[in-house]
Write a structure and sequence with these properties.
This protein is an alpha+beta fold. Helices cover 17% and strands 26% of the residues. It has a single domain (4-14, 47-147), classed as Metal Binding Protein, Guanine Nucleotide Exchange Factor, Chain A (Beta Complex). The protein is built from 3 helices and 9 strands. It has a 6-stranded antiparallel β-sheet. Strands 2-1-9 form a 3-stranded antiparallel β-sheet, with no helix packed on it. It is globular and about 40 Å long.
Length: 151
């Protein structure tokens, strides 16, 4: 289980190796994504709080990167943080997420990105529920819920 100490270590000393890498030009990403998905994932944008379709979705399934389809989070570790964005306590695998120090907007945070394609997802904070204490705060536009079939 990842902890805040692991997150800081990744952000400072380097990230785990991804399973694979996908790189495309901005033109290729723009052709694939909606304008809002492109703004958030490729230009490090943020959707307005409580505006994302996945904020209040709690269906069973996996949340994947909207850009490359890499599985990032599982619905079993999603929780209602009341922050206005989908929130998770852990990534689906330790190397699914890339971490970087973010000093924008006059504060220091840890940005989270897809480790496969560098899509901006949101930020991670040390104020989540136990046992990890982590809150991965993710833009709905950066992920897709692939629902599990129920029988």
């Amino acid at each position: 289980m990842l902890t805040w100490k692991h997150i800081i270590d990744f952000a400072v000393n380097g990230n785990p190796q991804p399973e694979k890498r996908i790189e495309k030009s901005d033109k290729d990403w723009q052709a694939q994504l909606t304008p809002e998905q492109f703004r958030i994932t490729r230009q490090k944008g943020t959707e307005a709080p409580h505006s994302g379709a996945l904020c209040s979705a709690f269906d069973s399934g996996k949340y994947s990167c909207v850009c490359c389809g890499t599985p990032l989070f599982d619905s079993i570790i999603k929780f209602n943080s009341s922050s206005g964005w989908p929130s998770f306590t852990q990534p689906i695998t330790p190397n699914a997420i890339k971490y970087e120090k973010d000093s924008s907007f006059g504060m220091v945070r840890v940005e989270i990105m897809c480790n496969t394609c560098d899509a901006h997802l949101g930020h991670v904070f040390p104020d989540g529920p136990e046992p990890s204490g982590l809150r991965y705060c993710v833009n709905s536009e950066s992920i897709i819920l692939e629902k599990e079939n129920e029988g």
